[in-house]
Amino acid sequence: MSDKAAEVQVPFQLQCSVNGELKTIAAPPSTRLLTILRDEMELTGTKRSCEIGRCGACMVLIDGRAVNSCLTMAYQCAGKQITTIEGLSANGLDPIQQAFLEEGGFQCGYCTPGMIVSVKSLLDDKPNPNVDEVAEALSGNICRCTGYGGIWRAVQRAIEGRRYWK
Amino acid sequence: MLLNRTSSGGRWRIRPDGPAKVTGELTYLTDMTKEDMLYGLVLRSEHPHARIISVQTDKAKQLQGVHAVLTYMDVPGLNAFGIAHPDQPVLCEDRARYVGDAIATVAAETLAIAQQALEQIEVEYEILPPVDDPELAILDDAPLLHPQGNTLHRTAFNRGDAEEGFKLCTHIIEETYYTPRQMHTYMETEGGLFVPGDDGRLTVYSPTQHGFMDRLQLSRILAIPQSDIRIVSSPIGGSFGGKDELNVQPYGALLAVNTGRPIKMHNSRWESVRAGLKRHPMKITMKTGTDADGKLLAHQVYIISDTGPYSTLGAEVLNFATEHVIGPYRYEHLDVKGVSVFTNNGMSGEFRGFGGNQAIFALEGQMDRLAERLGLEPWAFRKLNMRQLDDLGPFDQPIAMTEGADQVWDAVSTSPLWLEREKIPLEGQSAAEPWIKTGIGAAFTMHGAGLGVGIPDPAGGRLELAVDGKIEAVFGYEEFGQGLIAALEQMLIEQFDFAQEDIRIIIGDTDVVPDSGSTTASRATAMMWKSLQRLHTPFTEQLLERAGAIVGRPAEQLRLSEGGVRKKVGDELLITYGELAKAEGEPIRCETSFVFPTSPTDRVGAHFMYTYSAVAVKVELNTLTGRVKVLQQYHAVAAGPVINPQGFLGQIEGGSSMALGFALMEDAVMEKGHYMTRNLDTYLVPTIADQRGKIEVQPIEHLPENDEHGPRGIGEVGSVTLAPAIAAAIHQASGKWVTKLPIDPSYLQETPFFLSKAVNGE
């Protein structure tokens, strides 16, 4: 009994992979992933903005799918593969990042990491999405600067670029 | 030629700040941390209007981990801020005038402790009835929000005799227009890091649009010399005018000085909503008349603007609106009045377009209504009444002459989109889906740049050869996403023949940059251009003379180029900039300062430089839902030479997206002085799904010969004409006139024909 009680008191330790590295992080299980990434791991490419899952600035990939890190708690990340914007360019710029650069798919840049993460998730799933699928996949990422013109062009270019790249 | 990547050729460049943005490597000021830092929070009023009887901070101070709990008694200097007129308390003494009013500020070791401390502060309020209706607020019996009354500012402009003019009119349109409390919704909320130094100086890392203004304001609040404060203010995750005024800076600065520890502040979205600025909601009543042929005779306007509890730039915004309700048209008789009114609603202030958005929506609405009344094509009606080349400005002031009005009018009149308008059958009905209606509308404006007459508007910058051989361009401007660094880099490359690698751009740090004035009012690129024009000859001469002396050739035979100085004839690199920097001699350095060109008039707020813009837009209205989709936009913008094609396109596209929100979806609704929205789940801005339509941008670069002012501003003009164009398009689609933004879908809903049959049938 006493052993069991002691076991329960062991603080939660999150074990997961972040940008390809296995991590063990001591944090209460309800800590938001956004907080862990920004405050504990200093991965500040993941941005804080609305904190209710509406704007997408904090989007990261969890097992390849775009997720708002402000709505994800530590316990939900156990054993998962987490990729942040920093992880996307670990081996040089991703073709999506290159496309955003070339087409001007950003201005202030604050939404850009989350936007690129969402595009990555979309194109890994559907390499040739139609406009409805792009609109659907990116409608959770707010950009206040560009009016989305450069983002549409960047996504189009990324689709073409990835085809060529392969 | 339409502006796009292909048409721009080699001038379409990757932004120098781009790689760090797309990789997430860029450190925004709200990303910064420092060992030993404390977290700062602000306690804000629960009530839109209340007397503060007492503020008890003892319990909060006793919490472990709390390092400071400050109230108005702890403000060493001026307990007020405001760019134009400092009347907003840093920390309220005995009265709260809106739900963002700050009462206390705390610093603690963790955010959770700081939050707990806020909850432990006991404020005793006597709740006062909120003054939430600007029309009631200016009545004699309204409770006074300030000793001088509830009127912040009044404007008036008269020409001829409007009452007499109306007697001569055959057609008169009277209408009242309402515009929303639009929120900037920059993705990075306000925040930063405040670091007290060992040398007694304070470094503020926090976004603003004019670092020197923040330094001045903070020095007044802290009662320390400006030289003891350093403001680092770029990069910024969006501003749109919203971060020009102080926001978290007074609290971060006070806490840092008080605790001697670095303070981190970063507003939650709700904090940003409740405390931050919004676009002034305006009610604009217009009476406009023409003779039988459609010539404008008289125009009467009354603007009432809800400025919220404190001044900031409310008076200046009203001045701007007053100028822009007159706009690019000729009238015999004018009678324009405006009033900016204090209320207990949220703070209104500077926002991209600066009062132009509201004014142009109303003015262009009048033009469309008059054209319809006269049976004239709306664009032809505008031509009939449009300003002529040498006409004075809206306030009868001399202005920098351009052919912009004609140019953008012509561009729209011959655009395929506008020509399509005639083909849309009456009420734009489609046979297959009769509830879907389409329409095309257009609107037109001249939009002022610079701060206008009566406000100090300095400009300037510096070029120097740094010790490591880099060409340093040093300006007191801010990068909030608009592409200022990219524009500056492109000008240096194109005008001086430097390579990208030769250049280092330094902005946004009051310790090292000259005061170039504010990065507002669509002025920065034009002022950098003018600075470089002034610096070009002296800086080039200094470099070439030094190079000539070293390589033993006359400077006249040399030229600047990528990597260093070359012979004019031939391509031989004679000396690199690095070698030049190592050579002995006085530092090579040129600085210029001047003021933004202003009109020779006494009329406060009158502008001298204008950008002309016109937009045509095609919309689809679903009469079952009342929802409007913008299918296509065509923007013609006469602003002189395009400095940075990607940035130009981005400014027009981005500005028009804000205008789309202004027209169709955005309003920070308030009830009795309380925000009904706290976050982006109830304040909706356009998403990519709302921006699926095609946007074409046509820059018109031609300027009159001898024009010495170069590029005009384009930062705001994209955001001011779309709303009235959408309203005109909706009218073509539905026959309904829109008077209130954002457009209420229920107003556009119609009972479907099959339902009315069922109801009326057997």
From TrEMBL, chain A:
Residues 12-88 form the 2Fe-2S ferredoxin-type domain. InterPro entries: 2Fe-2S-bd (IPR002888), 2Fe-2S-bd_dom_sf (IPR036884), 2Fe-2S_ferredoxin-like_sf (IPR036010), 2Fe-2S_ferredoxin-type (IPR001041), 2Fe2S_fd_BS (IPR006058), Beta-grasp_dom_sf (IPR012675), Diverse_Oxidoreductases (IPR051452). Keywords: 2Fe-2S, Iron, Iron-sulfur, Metal-binding, Oxidoreductase. GO terms for molecular function: 2 iron, 2 sulfur cluster binding; metal ion binding; oxidoreductase activity. PROSITE patterns: 2FE2S_FER_1 (PS00197), 2FE2S_FER_2 (PS51085). The keyword Aminoacyl-tRNA synthetase does not apply. Pfam families: Fer2, Fer2_2. Pathway: Alkaloid degradation; nicotine degradation. Gene3D superfamilies: 3.10.20.30, [2Fe-2S]-binding domain. This is Carbon-monoxide dehydrogenase small subunit. The lineage of its organism: Bacteria, Bacillati, Bacillota, Bacilli, Bacillales.
From TrEMBL, chain B:
Gene3D superfamilies: Aldehyde oxidase/xanthine dehydrogenase, a/b hammerhead, Aldehyde oxidase/xanthine dehydrogenase, molybdopterin binding domain. GO terms for molecular function: iron ion binding; oxidoreductase activity. InterPro entries: Ald_Oxase/Xan_DH_a/b, Ald_Oxase/Xan_DH_a/b_sf, Ald_Oxase/xanthine_DH-like, AldOxase/xan_DH_MoCoBD1, AldOxase/xan_DH_MoCoBD2, AldOxase/xan_DH_Mopterin-bd_sf, Xanthine_dehydrogenase_dsu. Residues 23-129 form the Aldehyde oxidase/xanthine dehydrogenase a/b hammerhead domain. Pfam families: Ald_Xan_dh_C, MoCoBD_1, MoCoBD_2. This is Xanthine dehydrogenase molybdenum binding subunit apoprotein.
